[in-house]
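Handoff note, outgoing to incoming analyst
You'll be picking up this chain. Sequence as last confirmed:
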Amino acid sequence: MIVLLLMMVLFGYLLGSVSFSYLIAKKIKKIDIRSTGSGNAGATNTMRLLGVGPAICVLLLDVLKGVVPVFLAMALTSDPLVHILAGLAAILGHNWPIYFGFRGGKGVATTIGVIATLMFYPALIAGVIAIASIIITRYVSLGSLLFAAFTPIVALLIWPLPFATYPLEYIYLSALLAIMSLWRHRTNVSRLLAGTESKLGKKHA
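Most recent structure output, in case you need it:
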């Protein structure tokens, strides 16, 4: 079991370390996305710099980075510890990628992939709340924070239901990821409070 755990953590981290926003931005515009626009290696900055099509590709690929290691871990073992560590490793890889000098994104899309694979219904409900907030306010960062915050809350609220009785380790992971997301978005939180956060659709110079 220890060998399998280490293998899944390594696989998750190495897969998570593939920065699709960096690679696509380099391919299309020959730019380092981490030094342009908001400086974040993620789908939102990709959309601002490259447009909707590349941003959708980055979003889907980053989500898959979270889905694949968790799905594989769940297929190989019933141990929830292996599942959550494989997913956490993918998120850590995205945030601190070994291939790109440990400078990555904020892990939102990869977190969505991990949580949706582990706890589909809480992720779905939290996702609806997050999307609604983005549509209303056009603040992607706010939607990301709401998704992270509401996932463990929703998971606990619906946990007694027969279709939503997940291992408590999954809920612990979602709470940890909420804290991590808040920390990774701390500059966004400051801008949101100051009213200077960039809105969706606003291009950086």
